[in-house]
Each structure stands twice: as C-alpha cells, then as structure tokens.
C-alpha cells in the first residue's frame, strides 16, 4: 500500500461533471518556487501546477503509475519513477514537460534521488530488494546494490558521499521481542553498504531526509509493540 496524500486544486467543474481522483503521491517544487510538480499515481500522469494561482498548467501522461520524482541539481530536468514489474525512469524537461528519454529500472521503482553533482541517480527497486545506480550522462544503469527488504525511499548527504536508503519492513520473524527495520547506507564511491538498525518495533518506514548540514537524517516510520499479545 502507498501512503495517502492529498493536494487540493480550486477549479470550476461544470454541471453534471464528476471530478476525477488523481491519486497524488509525491511532489517537488521548482527551484524558483513557481511550479509544483505532482506525481498522480491513479491518473498515471505528472501535473505541473502554478504555485501562485493553484491552477494546473499541464499534465503529462506516464508509461505506468508514477511513484516518485526529483529534480536535477540545476533544476532543468525532472526524473520520475514509474512502477511496474519492469519499471521505467522517465527523464523530462522541467520547463516544457517534454519526455527526453526513458531508462529501464527494477520491480516497482520508487524513491529517486540524484547526487549533488548531477552525475548519478539512485532508484529504489522495491520488490527486487535492490537499488539501481544510473549514470545520467549515458542514461544507463551502471550498478545494482542490494538492500535489506523493500527499499522505498532514499536521500543523499550534501557532500554526495553517502546514500541513505530506508527499508520498508524488518527481516526475520515478527513474533519476537526485538524486531526492527534498518536503514542501508551506500558509499557512493565504492558502492559498499552498511546498515543502521532502528529502535525495536520500527517498521513501515516511509520517508527519509538529511539535514542541510549533513549531520542528521530523519526517518518516518511506525513504532509497533511486538512484545504484546495480539488482542
């Protein structure tokens, strides 16, 4: 299941018309703060919204359900993960919305994040339990890095040295007193990984971000009480 997000547009609807639910699941703002890019999961499209007026500028159809998006460091390109058994990464012109190219990805791609120098993009392949490393100059996958279980989102440190990947679920049994998911840390130079275990009961990880100074990472998750009997 994907998280429930809402985005409200004030728009006139003619008599007898029923508004179509778009299923917004992710968004990012342009660097100048004028445009909001919205991934609409159910409508299988990306909406460009004028932030000042709240009106839609255009909608661009995607090859499958968009699950995540991010901008290039210079703000010129928009990268969109479109989930499927064989997913697609769509590279779009952030101003015109024109699709420039598509790149193959793994099972249920999501959580795209780009390095500060704009050279590489990391994509979480949720049900392949790994992360694609994409060279943005050649637009080709150059590596696959194993994750723990259902990688869902990622964030890169400001120095570009580490990628933090959240694993949606813990591994192993869930009927013990100590159950927790982990955050995978990828070294961008060597592609080696380490893990940080979250507090007991941590599960259902959804999002991750890194503070501007690179000192802290913040992860949203459920804190379950596994040691209690089911009632």
Q: Brief overview, please?
A:
With about 230 residues, the protein is mostly beta strands.
Overall description:
It is built from no helices and 18 strands. The two termini are 23 Å apart. With 231 residues, the chain is mainly β. It is globular and about 50 Å long.
Question: What is the strand content?
Answer: over 45%
- Give a quick account of the main beta sheet: strands, pairing sense, barrel closure: 4 strands, antiparallel
Helical residue percent band: under 10%
Arithmetic mean of pLDDT: 91
CA radius of gyration: 18 Å
What's the arrangement of secondary structure elements?
Elements: E1 24-29, E2 35-40, E3 45-50, E4 56-61, E5 65-71, E6 77-83, E7 88-93, E8 99-104, E9 109-114, E10 120-125, E11 130-135, E12 140-146, E13 151-156, E14 162-167, E15 182-187, E16 193-197, E17 202-210, E18 217-223
Antiparallel strand pairs: 1-2, 2-3, 3-4, 5-6, 6-7, 7-8, 9-10, 10-11, 11-12, 13-14, 14-15, 15-16, 17-18
What key attributes describe this structure?
231 residues; mainly beta; 18 strands
